């Protein structure tokens, strides 16, 4: 069996830090579970319960154990966890990895997502030398569109009915960033 991935701590702009998940992050999972959108497109449990929150955090740990990817908690300069960013390696054999991110409502508009995405992108391109990074954004999500574009991703098109979100298939904008575009 291959060694599990080592999820590092990464410094991000704006005083944010990225680190592995801890059981002490249950309040973050609880807040995310109450969001109208986060549980629809992630594995954040809704409704929340402590056992479901623990299972969510254990799933994040298993992503490194199974080499599926790196999942980080976004933390403010005063130590408050405010979101998640993940680098998923499912298509790494094809030279691609994907990113996903979310920030709880109480912390939006403070640059957490942009700082986290920039930190993971820099690390993935520079240190991991991944040739192509991808992410998908629902067309209505203008904040995520801005985050992707500010982080150097280019929109490549609209994927119609691309992803199951809640009880329906939704369109997604496809964004990509290539390693040689640094």
Automatic annotation (TrEMBL):
InterPro entries according to UniProt: Acyl_CoA_acyltransferase, GNAT_dom, Ribosomal_N-acetyltransferase
Name this polypeptide is given: GNAT family N-acetyltransferase
Annotated N-acetyltransferase domain residues: 16-179
Pfam families (alphabetical): Acetyltransf_3 (PF13302)
């Amino acid at each position: 069996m291959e060694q599990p991935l080592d999820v590092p701590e990464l410094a991000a702009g704006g005083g944010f830090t990225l680190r592995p998940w801890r059981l002490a992050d249950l309040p973050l999972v609880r807040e995310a579970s109450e969001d109208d959108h986060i549980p629809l497109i992630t594995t954040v449990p809704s409704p929340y319960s402590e056992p479901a929150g623990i299972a969510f955090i254990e799933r994040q740990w298993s992503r490194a154990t199974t080499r599926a990817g790196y999942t980080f908690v976004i933390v403010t300069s005063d130590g408050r966890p405010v979101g998640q960013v993940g680098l998923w390696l499912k298509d790494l054999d094809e030279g691609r990895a994907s990113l996903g991110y979310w920030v709880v409502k109480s912390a939006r508009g403070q640059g957490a997502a942009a700082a986290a995405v920039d930190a993971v992108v820099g690390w993935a391109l520079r240190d991991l030398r991944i040739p192509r990074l991808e992410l998908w954004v629902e067309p209505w999500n203008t904040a995520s569109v801005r985050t992707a574009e500010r982080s150097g991703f280019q929109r490549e098109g609209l994927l119609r009915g691309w992803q199951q979100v809640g009880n329906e298939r939704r369109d997604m904008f496809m964004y990509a960033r290539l390693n040689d575009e640094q």
